[in-house]
Design brief:
Shape: globular
Order of helices and strands: HHHEHEHEHEHEHHH
Radius of gyration: 17 Å
Distance between the termini: 24 Å
Bound molecules: 5-O-phosphono-beta-D-ribofuranose
Structural class: alpha/beta
Number of strands: 5
Strand order of the largest sheet: 2-1-3-4-5
Amino acid sequence: MLALAARIPILARFLARPPLERSALTKPSTPPVAIIMGSRSDWPTMQAAAEALDALGVAYHAQVISAHRTPERLYAFAKGAKAAGYQVIIAGAGGAAHLPGMTAAMTELPVLGVPVRSEALSGLDSLLSIVQMPGGVPVATLAVGKPGARNAGLLAAQILALQDGDLAERVAAFRAEQTASVPETVEDSLG
Ligand code: RP5
């Protein structure tokens, strides 16, 4: 993140603030984003969401909640998430991936679903399980695997940025830097 910050002045200024000041800006008692996942085995994928949030200075809490193995943990989390102060939920799961949909069924908070790549069906099962929600209970479904997790982090930041001008500036700076980093010619990309 420091390398990224060195190239993005607004991010560098943000990171240069004293920790308490940063924390006042981005870490109320409950962070704005919850990252939940069906298994510890999902973390290597879901870490990409955490890294995207880190890079934009957005606080989060990550935890394992299995719709199948810990249904009561899911119920308690989803029913209490809004009152706890979360604003966006990122939910990753693989296989029979019921976590995002069941979470969305129990909260009005926006739920971003990340299909984790499964061993048996390469994530197609995860994707279809998450994307085919019945009308009335939306889950915003991202791409399969790490790109989807990364985009879930970015999308969560963009949602929060609607109410946070400083974050909106960091998102815009990230986008501008990303655009500037794409070489136009083949030779440049080899150099
Ligand atoms: C799902 O089953 C999890 O989200 C995970 O992607 C998958 C496999 O879980 P483990 O057997 O590795 O715990 O519930």
